[in-house]
From TrEMBL:
Cofactor note: Binds 1 zinc ion per subunit.
Reactions catalysed: adenine + H2O + H(+) = hypoxanthine + NH4(+)
Name listed for the protein in its UniProt record: Adenine deaminase
Residues annotated as signal peptide: none
Keyword field: Hydrolase, Metal-binding, Nucleotide metabolism, Zinc
An MF annotation (GO) of this entry: zinc ion binding
UniProt-annotated site: Important for catalytic activity, residues: 222
SUPFAM superfamilies: Metallo-dependent hydrolases
Domain Adenosine deaminase: 13-332
Obligatory cofactor(s): Zn(2+)
Keyword Amino-acid biosynthesis: no
UniProt xrefs under NCBIfam families: aden_deam (TIGR01430), PRK09358.1-6 (NF006850)
Amino acid sequence: MSQSLTHLIQQLPKAELHLHLEGSLEPELMFKLARRNQIQLPYADEAALHQAYQFNNLQEFLDLYYQGTSVLNTEEDFYDLTFAYMKRIHADQVIHTEVFFDPQAHLARGVSLETQLRGITHALAEARHQFNISYRLILSFLRHLSEEEALNTLEQALPYLDQIAGVGLDSSERGQPPEKFTRLFARCHALGLKVTIHAGEEGPAEYVWQALKLLNAERIDHGNRALEDAELLIYLAQQGIPLTMCPLSNQKLCVVPELDQHPILQLLEKGLCVTVNSDDPAYFGGYINDNFQALVNHLPVLPHHIYQLCRNSLIASWMDPSEKQQALNQLAHVWEELKHPST
Ligand code: HPA
Ligand SMILES: [Zn+2]
């Protein structure tokens, strides 16, 4: 059975909706870019760096994640980072991806938004051409910084809004409630940007409510702690608000004690639009299909769950309606073929 589930995971077309480009920076590429830019990393080699990837919480991870971004300096660096991710997900039957980038992390080192965006968007366009993967780009604000700084970053992004589908909010969650950014996201809405908010990863269910009610989030990234609030679960199900969940990330950052206690299946059965994503695959030990496989290895996952999770990923995406319908048809076709092979 688990062999056929693995086959199903590999074959079904899907979307990834929660991926930080900076979190797809593999140790090998990090060292390559460090050499190219003559930057000294505080690790002897790739293996030593990999050894350091043990985290007790979100902040311990973020400290390494921001340190890793120091090698990203030129347009070519952002291109290489983005293209490597797109090439990798092609192997996982990802047909659409919505990727975050953290401009403030790079602006702080003097890397312009123009440089970041040129590298990222060139790689995305090239990957669409080579691998037929569609995409949306999400500018994510850092919640440990002030609303003023985020508003300033948004002003700088105004000339490039044709390249940016939506905005997000990430980084350290504890003590950084969504309400801190009410003005920022009101402005983002007014500009026609879509909104997705990291909430309920380490922060309480109250932060999920704030993301929905004060920031008008259309999606919630993570959302694990929604489970602590029965009323919130009913609201998320009734409103069809997607949760972009990340099993291996949750395990690595101790958001769940063990994967067999991951709530995704429970939430799926309660009718929530949950999806599977990799978050920061270079740091958490796997890309999207590894996350599906981890669920299969630890939870009573059935074939129709895999299908529903893939379907949810397409439904929760920000594709145009016709693009979305086509993707759903493609998924349904592959699913039928696998259930009843015609040959
Ligand atoms: O999982 C995450 N949570 C918050 N901030 C982040 N920045 C990259 N990954 C994450
Ligand atoms: Zn994330």
